[in-house]
Amino acid sequence: MNEIVDKPYFFKFNVAVDCIIFGFDDEGLKLLLYKRNFEPEIGKWSLMGGFLSPEESLDKAASRVLAKITGLKNIFLEQFHTYGDVNRDTGARVISAAYYALIKISDFSQSMIDEFGAQWWPVNDYPELVFDHGVMVESALETLRSKAKNEPIGFELLPRFFTITQLRNLYEAIYQRTFDPGNFRKKILSMKLLDRLPIKDKTGSKKGAFLYEFNQNRYERFKSQGFLFEL
Amino acid sequence: MNEIVDKPYFFKFNVAVDCIIFGFDDEGLKLLLYKRNFEPEIGKWSLMGGFLSPEESLDKAASRVLAKITGLKNIFLEQFHTYGDVNRDTGARVISAAYYALIKISDFSQSMIDEFGAQWWPVNDYPELVFDHGVMVESALETLRSKAKNEPIGFELLPRFFTITQLRNLYEAIYQRTFDPGNFRKKILSMKLLDRLPIKDKTGSKKGAFLYEFNQNRYERFKSQGFLFEL
DNA sequence: GCAAAAGTGTTGCTTCTACACCCATGG
DNA sequence: CCATGGGTGTAGAAGCAACACTTTTGC
Q: Where on strand D do bases come within 7 A of a protein Cβ?
């Protein structure tokens, strides 16, 4: 806080958080939306959100909202922009801090979907959203794309154990382009961040593909030595 | 805005904007700070900030604060994070949206410095700041560094006409490393984004160095064709 | 003429890209 | 046995880093 000539502590505002929740499965990159069950804009599709409480930080509020809808804790959750246009919310003036979350879709319980009328939507084909939530989603996608370039956040969207092909499919979904399978494999393995398990996954091919696990500790170590993740 | 189970429109908060203002001259990358002339924390060094008004957006509020302190309009100004910890401000609970601005230090009028008790500080050596402003500065620096990698925002910090050496000095200041003069020149010129003027600047050397101008239109065109700026 | 910055050229190395090709196996 | 995805190898192109070398000119 701060001021120069203004009168401080005078006007106050509603403050909310909204969460863009991303997931990934064999159909591609998805987005969790729900149908509003209250006014304004009741019945329309919307992001998950909630109002800030006096005794919690913005980050806490976002975690709370995310935990309520997904039942999950310790999820990748990062603030990316705060929306403050005067008429962005048709009900009242609300300043909204937007967060994006990356979850392992397999960890997600279907019960929450039913309880809140939530549903996964492809990021390329989701319904019209209330207020400026469409803008938020597009901006979150851009943030995700740009972040994924230089930080290994893609693994947040995959199960703990995955094949190189699954990983490539994920990056192809994020960047909306294809990668040469051989070159992709060589590049990611050359980073020495993936540990190969002595187990093959046979669901994707007859031959079977080795499962790998991302080694977070090794990444931290390499990073502190100047290594830069890049894909 | 949005909610799930909470009571909406109940608690309200002070909302502010804070600006991290960067400039660049032959001494390096600088930061504009001022001495607070009001409570709390009067007399301490602080970022420029101001409270949000009911009839203005966050972006507008940030522009207003920036214009007030610098007298400048149409400046590069971008929101990068919103700070919302409960006790971040010792005076009252304030949610603050932080913006960073890039200005051409030569355009900046000294009168503002005097009027507000403002002062330029090297980004490597600035005084202790109030509240979480130090955190904001470091985060703004990180954002600047990461943004500068893939977008030609460095030119916002240079005069309209500049030499390749000035440009290199700027990037060396941003990234805190050196670049080989020959290689840097070849790389930036190979992008075909700089127009050479038939004028030499003699202040930096006896031989004189050609002045260049960044061609924003050409950049937009290249970008729309898939070109990616990278330095 | 010498120092010092501007600017060009060269060379060897690394990385990228495209694509050929072998492997393993369920059906 | 063959189609399919898994996985390895390779050759040419492109990019990069280090550094030699040439140009210009004020002192």
A: 3-10, 16-20, 23-26
